[in-house]
Amino acid sequence: MKRSRGSCDEGNDSSEERRKKKKKKKKKKACSDSDESDGSRKKRKKKGKKSKTKDKKKKKEEENFAEMYERELRDYRSEDSHETEDEYNKKKGHIGSHVGMLLKPVKKLPAPENEYYKATVYEVVTVTGDVRGAGTDAKIFVTLFGEFGITPKAHLTSKSESAFERSKTDVFRVRTNNVGTIRKIRIEHDNTSMNPSWFLDRVIVTDMNRPHLRFYFPCNNWLSKDDGDGLNVRDLLGTLNPMDVPKGNKYIVRVFTGDINGSGTDADVFINIFGQYGDTGERKLDNDNDNFERAQEDKFTLDAPNMGRLRKINIGHNNKGGSAGWFLDKVLIEDIGNKANYEFPCYRWLALDEDDGKIQRDILVGGAEATGMVYNVAVMTGDVRGAGTNSKIHIVMHGSKGLKNSGKVFLEGGEFERARTDLFNIEIAALLSPLSRVSIGHDNCGVSSGWYCEKVTVYCPFTGIEQTFPCGKWLDEDEGDGLVERELYEMLSMRQKRLKKNPWSLWIWTSDMRGAGTDAPIFFQIFGDKGKSDEMKLDNNSDNFEAGQTDKFMIELPDLGTFYKLRIWHEKRTPFAGWHLQKVTILKTLTKEKYTFKCNRWLDVNEDDREIVRELPAEGSLVTEVMPVIKYRVTVQTGSVSGSGTDAKVFTCLIGDQGDTGDRLLSNSVNTTNKFEKGSIDEFIIEAVDLKQVRRVRIGHDGRGGSSGWYLGKVIVRQDGQPESEAVEFPCYRWFDKNEDDGLIIRELVPEGRSYILENVGYHISIKTGDVPGASSDSKVLIKMYGEKGDTKKEFLLISDNDLEDYFERGRIDIFTLDTRDIGKIKRLLIGHDNVGLQAGWHLGSVQVTIPVHGLQYNFPCNRWLDKNEADGRVEIEVYPSEIVPIEILINYEVVVVTGDVRNAGSNANVFMQMYGELGKTEVLILQNRSNNYERGATELFKIEATDVGKIYKIRIGHDGSGIGDGWYLETVSIKKFATKEERKKKKKKRKSGDEEENELPSMEGTIDTYTFAAHRWLASDEEDKELVVELMPEEGLEPEASVIVYEVHVITGSVMGAGTDANVYVAIYGERGDTGERHLKRSDHMNKFEKDQVDIFTVKAVDLGDLKKLRIRHDNTGSNPAWFLERVEIIDTKEETTYYFPCQRWLAVEEDDGQVARELVPVAEAFVKKDPNSSSSAATLGLEQK
């Protein structure tokens, strides 16, 4: 390397000059010690030091690649990677690359790293050889490898039709990245057209910024699948002397196929060798023999530049042929030039139907276990005619500056049909994310080889970065520019930051005893001090969980901190599904953190305690204390109301200070056979790792069975063996029924003395089904939300708030509510369906989650299929919010309404209520649910989300008088809410400062205020005072001056022609201390109300309003003559004996005046009313005041 740089600066030294220099050096070495001066001794010491540093460098070079790679992963910092890649794309924009967007300025990279991003023009001259058939019609590409990096693949295009013809010299200008001193080039063609074979004599590359740097790359070989050695890609070494012929290297590759049944393959095998100085590129291993047969050794010779110490190989096949599956024992490589031998042991299948289903593997030198980086690749085929292809698609992922790449990876198993998205998991031993670019192409084989690629998306769980690479072009020799491989660049505006996950190795040890194995699918979940994983299913292509067998799986987990337990289970309750688990071991492949979870028990409905779920405490060097396994005795008391029992399957989950038990089916009752009958008390044992203090109980049923509705009294939880005084009681006394109460069949309960209605958060989920043909679905839709404080369970959305008959119909919005514990700000959600039904597929438009108690609304645009037969075939997806919109903050109220136990006390009318407090008033609230409300002696419980009114001083409650038997005897109303905190004012000040408020949500805890309102009266048109509305004050904390008073309302109709009305008239009176709400003026002292020049007197009872400020009067425009001319309204406060005058003198009519049927009037002095009614000035002034 140093020599080549020297030659670049000094020019070409002749061979004679070199010989002279060597002789001088020999003479200096031959000098005796006596002749040496002090200065020469110092120089020799310095040389000695230099030689030592060189030795150190050599030692560094000889470091274990696996250790270097693991160190790179451990030292990874996402912020650094972001800056580098943004800089890359920014510079690409200056170069005029495919990324045409401006980016925010980022930190300057230190030179010479920054040199790579400077635009440079290279002149590339190709000389085609003078042999028969030397010319080519294929498309030629060149890649430059230099000291600063590697350029993207450049297409050498020419307007001349005679380019690359025999004996022809072609000149091209390539504008690309600056790679500094060029070390080698890779030149290739795409093997398209009628005559793709090409005999290349040489290539000359000149850096136009430094024209004296002209590099010569002799070739004198075929680039052809049919001629020479069958390669259509070559790596050429350069020299500044056109007469020099750089020497390459030879690698002898010995491939050993395993000696097991079916181990041989008929597929084409490829290898890519990676070393210190790059890679060989993909090479097909082929000779005249019948290669890769069972127990056979095959030998191949590869010509390539010197790659220094070898680090890894990527070996695989293209899955062609009748028996493509291949069991590879090992690969031995002899480096002829460097006189070194390398072993790459494998001992695994490369087969779609064996092992992990991979047909390509990265193998490190010596078979060292390395952390495989997983890349989730989604390839979208365009929605244009003929877009699909039968060709073999491949991809190459390139890291920063192109210095590292994945090698060519075949995307097997994809359909690549029109408008489909194919998903692939690529595992390689290289950290490339964030990618600088991807290369995607195909082999141009098959009947319809052309392909229209829409885009490629790559997500790396380790970095949490998802990148989108748009294409929107044909890869077809007969379409567009004829390319069958393209370089794609990221659209940076679409980059997403996802959840970071680390790779782990998981071993499952099935016991070595009779009947220990199982065919059931196994699920598990891991708990750490920073959270818990998702529930994961263990599956691969092998026959797992056999007796005496150890099964290994690769999984990805987010940062969960130190693990303390694992839950493992299966879901089969059938005979022969039982499983005896010995232990589970898990290892973080990066840091070698290891945990063991011992079991040695059955998961079988016919063995042990007949449970199929086990919780196992973590053991290992990282675990300071092994948690005990506790038996919890759960007592479930079914209510004694009519029809309270259930035939459905009931499950529960205990939630404590340290984790939860997960949903456990309550199938094995300790004391009863027929469970969950009316008035019954059933006991169950739940075994789990110590939860510490149990804080919540989640309980529900599956909604199946003839009589699935269930009325639950309470749940009692205590540790088995402890006294009953230690038990914690979780009261409920509500229905779990789709047709009763609020329709919920799952509830979260809190201990007695607390209110789960106030503490739980309502998540209102609006789901819009797409407006495309076939968008509707018959499947059951499920959702799971992930928040800062935890996540919800996967919940099926069974009961819609807007009561539509068929859910998830085309173009429609379905609204659901999940009532659960506070999970904080939502980070992402999972949504999908169970894929069951005649029309299971579903097109999801968008999801909106509104959380009133947080004052936030989350929007999740989706616009995609969840269908096995559409797009990427997925039926579950994770989505992230595109925007978070602030909304009005509401709080939870618990409202209990008791109907009296007197004859005909019940009502079928619609009941409403409004609350007034020190901070304001709520909207008019409708109190109803799915039950038959307000029956005689009934107690109704409602959860209301409304604005915080502070300390409540009155409520207004009534009904609309609709239905048969509308009269209602109201006994009492009680309201619970969290006390309003004075600190909220301080928080509002903090909001102005900014940062703190952004992460702060209203607390769902605090002191509970209870307000009781005694009514003991009829709200009926034929009882007592015949009023349907009443205002009530709380029994506790009554203000001395507060009382219910009677307001006399005198309504004076005008004397103009046609002034009277037949419509229904309503009035609302506003004062210093609230308002009366809108009251229907029904009972006047006249039979025929609101007639011309008539005064009608009404009474309105309300809590003292103080001084009156205004009134609002209107009519409903019904009847034969609704138009009404109102002269004025007079209101007498009977307590203060004060009269308020509200002049109007205007029409309330759609065909008169301004067409309004409602007016707001303000009080005036009595003297104003007594003025001459014919005075024009008074009318004009009145018009200004009254609306």
From TrEMBL:
Protein name according to UniProt: Lipoxygenase homology domain-containing protein 1-like
PANTHER family, alphabetized: LIPOXYGENASE HOMOLOGY DOMAIN-CONTAINING PROTEIN 1 (PTHR45901:SF3), PROTEIN CBG12474 (PTHR45901)
Residue ranges constituting the PLAT domain according to the UniProt record: 120-237, 249-364, 373-489, 502-617, 630-750, 761-880, 891-1033, 1045-1162
Origin superkingdom: Eukaryota
Pfam families: PLAT
UniProt biased composition (Basic and acidic residues): 60-81
Basic residues bias spans: 19-29, 41-59
Region (Disordered): 1-92, 984-1004
Stored InterPro entries: Inner_ear_hair_cell_LOXHD, PLAT/LH2_dom, PLAT/LH2_dom_sf
